[in-house]
Amino acid sequence: MTALAARRRHPLALVLLIALGLLATGAAYSALAPKAASAATTSTQDIAAGKKLFLANCASCHGLNAQGAPADNRGNIAGPSLIGVGAASVDFQVGTGRMPMAEPGPQAPQAVVRFDDKETAQLAAYVASLAPGPQIPTAEEASGEGGDAAKGGEIFRVNCAMCHNYAGAGGALTRGKYAPALDNTSPKHIYEAMATGPQSMPVFNDKNITPENKKDVIAFIEASRELPHAGGSSLGNLGPVPEGLFTWIVGIGALIGCSVWLGSKAA
Amino acid sequence: MSQTQHGSTDGTLAQRPGLPEHAPQIEGTTAAPTLFENPGLPPHVHRLADTDPKAAKRAERQVAALFTLSILGTLVFLVSYFAVDPQTPVYIPLIGRTLLQNFLLGLGMGCGIFFIGIGAVHWAKTLMPDEEVVEERHYLRSTAADRDGAVQALQQGGEESGIGRRPLIKATAAGALGLFGLPFIVALRDLGPLPGDRLSRTMWKAGMRLVSDPEYGPIRAEDVTIGSVFHVMPEGIDKVHDKLEQKAKAAVLLMRLDPADIKSTKQKAWGYQGIVAYSKICTHVGCPVGLYEQQTHHLLCPCHQSTFDVTEDCKVIFGPAHRPLPQLPITVDTEGYLVASSPFHEAVGPSFPERGHR
Amino acid sequence: MSTSLGGRVVGGTASYIDERTGAAKAMRYGLRKVFPDHWSFMLGEIAMYSLVILLLTGTFLTFWFVPSAAETVYTGSYGPLRGVEMSEAYRSTLDISYEIRGGLLLRQIHHWSALLFVASIAVHMFRVFFTGAFRKPREINWVIGLTLALLALIEGFAGYSLPDDLLSGTGLSFARGMILSIPIVGSYVSSFVFGGDYPGEALIPRLFIAHVLLIPALLVGLFVVHIMLVALHKHTQYPGPGRTEQNVVGYPLMPVYTAKAGGFFFIVFGVTVFLSTFAMINPIWAYGPYDPSPVTAGSQPDWYMGWLEGAIRLLPGWLEFQVFGWTFSFNIAIGGLVLPGLVTVAAFMYPFLEAWVTGDKREHHLLDRPRNAPTRTGLGAMAIAFYVLLWSGGGNDLIATHFRTSINDITNFLRIAVIVIPPIVYVVTKRICLGLQRRDRDLVLHGMESGRIVRLPHGEFIEVHEPLSPQDAWQLVQHDAHRPLPLPEGADGNGVRRPGTRAQRIRAKLSHFWFEDRVEPVSPAELAAAHAHGDHHAVTEEHTEMQKQLQTGRH
Lengths: 267, 358, 555
What we know:
Chain A is an all-alpha fold. In chain A, 50% of the residues lie in helices and 1% in strands. Chain A has helices at residues 3-8, 13-32, 44-57, 59-62, 86-95, 117-130, 149-159, 161-164, 187-196, 211-226, 240-263, and strands spanning 171-172, 178-179.
């Protein structure tokens, strides 16, 4: 009898064999199984998982059935209805950390993202299941590549600059609300914001700004970010106010400093 | 004069001799000048370069170094102008990504100029004499003789001209001189046409389609969903010869509200199934009122923060504007596209004096 | 006499010119002219040199700028605007920025210099005001200076509106709304200014001529008169030992001031170029071409128009009303016309008002220390506070986004603050001045606290006060005391009413407002009384020794 043959009859041999078999099957499966498709296809498991997440994190403001909370006597709504807002809304709000809203305020600011991609997708799937609404754009749709930045600029200046500023540096709205700066927003989130109109932002549906035009707008925003600032520091891209402050503080300050030096006696 | 000689630093202030102890007020004025005597210039203190030849040499080298920096700066400009590609970007800390050639040109020119100044001032401060010099002032008022002489010369000249004795010449000269400038004023008349009623009229006519700005595509009623805002212009605005002038009056905002939210019956009647169209030109000083806050249904003008409530016929709820935005009555045509059902019923844009008459 | 070639050439040229102009006499007088030395006298020079820089860089820009509103399509190197329709003015400015080497730098120098020009005029004006340099014989120069300031504002506005970009075009749209608010004739004036409807094609060429020819001619002409008057009156000087109303103490033009003031030109120019190297200004390519439909958030004019912008934002809408069908937009007209008019008139009138109140007809060449004119200093601080509050109103949306507050709250706060805060600033500033004057009196009477504690033989502890040197003490006692005028008699001995009494009464009341609260400088009698004070006598003797030792090292 050989050494191997002697070990074949070991009491744990069967356990080891089954473990090896499971390991091999699992490895083969994960190596060979097809990757999950993009958010376009969701499974009922995603929806169910999303509903669970929703009930735990969102229902307190948005209602158990996402029907929203009633407005208070000043017309403020704690949580609007999410029926019909679509997967794109959720992907935007949760993906930029705006939701769940950490504390009450005039609006939800961009914040630390609380959920990972999978959980975000599940929440999106759940909300999308409630009623049809704007879908998450494909990677090709949401990219600026192939877009016409010049056309995008014209569209941006008519539709976006009055809230977000000519360079996307943000601007004020009434009562403490604001249109945020765009320098840290991904192209996908820009697309989704245009399509869903988050909070105070109006909805720019595909008949208003077509998907090609949305691509042009994204191309313009990316070009504005990537092009060098030709004349020096942009001073925040906020226009004449920082320029005036810079004049007084740096310009007049330096010149008064030089004047004092000029008028003082040498050592 | 003793007051301007160098005084000593010992002792106390002396009083000007021959004056009372408490300062008297000059009659007819509020001023009561001091009774003390000016102690004279303080003693001169020498600089290092005045007394120490090594310090002077050091200062001389410093000045020379500063002028040399200027020369180097100018050279940097001259080289960068020709040798550096204008499109090359560069990253500079605290500034960010900028264009290399522009930066080098500025740095070069700046150093080239700045250090001439610093060098010249340092030279003056350290090496040129800094003994204070005293110059006397003179009263500005001329002597009585000069003043009388001037008056006399004027009077004599006036008499010799004879204008006092010849009223006919005086009258006609005044007439001629007074009138000759008028043609130049009258010639300004054609600076511009009279305003007429152009301020009260826009390009909008009944049946004109609303097209999106800046793509100029027509809009169907069902495309305008709740929460949307469309920036629109009248169809054909891209073909007129005075496009910008028409745009400045014809810009319109199209929004859709839930009809239950609209409080004004006139607003509902002039709209179409909750879609309403309002002039985009602010009634304050004419900026485009572009900011539509979808949830509060408020329109905010970014210039001076006039706020209009779209649920209440765009009446002013905050800010310096006075009048609500004029509404454009709309309907749909046979193909389902949104059209104006009539022109504006009032003048759009900022108030002007005769607004109430037209 | 130099016999080198260079020396002979210079000598020969000078002789040639002198034989034809008699210039040697002027040079003999002018080259040794004395200028007093103080850093605050350089502030006006910043403005002067900025004007030169503006003329120089502006001339460069006119070689490439096209002042036309004719439409064209962009084909240059800035990608995000290729294929976009724009005016020739905008296109040529883009070309200056992106196609002409050094063009962007020159454009930026021109614009930064303009901002510095107006800012330096402001600080120069503050220095002149707070030191009373506008008093006789310099009232005319004050009036000319204010006119120059107003012209600078208009020139700057015209200049940054020339490129026809979105931001400045929005500003022109605002200007047109302001013109329309002129009562009765607003629409006519607007039609004449714009050559018809807004925006029209006439405005850019007209602004160009105003900006390049008409206003610079006025600026240069008035400035030459301004500087000639300074030369004629000779510069004022701060009071001090050896300085009187009859002299000027300082350094001669040649060589010290040629080097210092000439060098300062290069310093101002250099700093302006550095600003233009490190910081972008007016990035017109990012704003886009002007179109009446789009607008950017954060639309503000350049800083010096900010106070008018603030006034327009703060004035409430109920100020507009209709009478017999005529509309009167006082919410705009007050901010755009009445307010600048009142401020200008008040500023122009101040020297004459103060001269009337004090009745002082003497020439003044010694400056006031601001603390010695508490009411004037308080009024000036109040005016500055008013201006700064309006200026912040002009940026209320940026304050809102950067401090996370509501623009509505900021606007409402400023509406009240603009009325309430300036009088408070007046009172506080005046009190501070009076306090400083009391401190000066203390210094003269009791000397400077040295921080050294000495125990006297009989056990008392005192702090040693070093008496001031005569030069230092002079600085604190040389100024005039001002006392209110007595109220005039209403009638003479027989009960006949004196003519002109009403004006005299107003004048006396005003002089009370100006001078009732006062701290007079130490008089010789008070100084003698302080010196006779026994307590410090023992210390004084010992102290004269220490004083002698300290004086040699003090300066």
